[in-house]
Amino acid sequence: MFTAHTLQQTFILPVAPSFFNGLRSDNNLTLTEAKADYTRPMPEESKLKAGYDLRIDQNSYDYIGLRGMNAADAAPDPTQTNLFLYKQTINAAYVTYERPFGEWTVLGGIRLEEVQLDLDQVTTNLIHDTSYFQAYPSLHLAYKLTGETQLTLGYSKRVQRPNPQDFNPFRVEGNPLQFSAGNPNLQPQLTNSFEAGYQYKAGETFYLATLYYRHNEHGVTDVFTDLGNEALLDTKENLASSQAAGLELVANGRLAKTLTYSASINIFWDEIDAAGQGLSQLVNVAGRRQASLVGGRATLNWQAGAKDTFQVGAQSYAKSLTPQGYISPTQITFLGYRHKFSDSLSAVVTAQDLSHTLRLHIVTATPNLRDVSTNRPDGQAIFVGLAWNFGAPNKRSRDQGFDFGA
Hints:
Maltoporin, Chain A, 2 helices, globular
């Protein structure tokens, strides 16, 4: 996969000659996965499921730096050219057991994972290998109130791993005052989640209200370090901990014969703790930071005919706290169109950020460091594809949604 990134910046003070600084990447991403699942009906209407999942991500990130007075005369820059190799192997086994007890339904399970991470920054000759084992239990309870409503309770332990390029320790120059580098010592974020919900489902109408509390360990966050001479280094670190509590509301339904909708809103309180693990000394900010936040998503689907479906959607990302400041809320819009040639073959066109509203506004404010940056990533994109369903058609294939780019 080949991607190219262009950065254009204007400096007001101090006056400096114009220059071109580019970073071209040639990325190869290989995913190998093998899965085996086993399901067995049990007495008392219970179900036992078990499985094994092997996943191997083996990627190479080849960056070529370019520098010159302008794009036309830019020449390779060896100080920014580097090769990073990433390999992650996950061996996972899981088992779940579900059984009804009158109006109650109990679903419990556990997932066991062994992870091997191999990192190789070829240019700087830095090799970093690590492995770990982790168990992820879960327990969910449902109580049926009526034929359409039920109450739910749940606990789960989850994992969120850093992005592969977050591990690359090579220092990249965005401009003479801004540098960035990854961290090969990052740990995955672990989350203990507790939820209580109320659900209503009747035909195509679905409502869900969920109260939740989540406690996170080792969340990945950006940290800015002063390099001197007004230059900053942006790198990745693990938080000591964070926690969030809130209310999530979800509604799906039909507005008219050809119009359906889906909407959700998340109202929550968030707190991060940057102390511990040496992080407070690194960023010169100790203690906790907290805020009340809101985010949400909405989509509208129009069935123009038996073969044509249109969708318009919008996503609002909530404000995000960092150890030294925050990232402002941002929004992005989506469009989708599907034409069915048959029950098996359809053409899909999706587009994102056509209104160019995506913006990354980062504020860093500490007793001895203040920096405000606004980036407008070029997230505008159009995707065109064909979808071919094998086997007999089913309701899920007829009602499939749209997939949008990241």
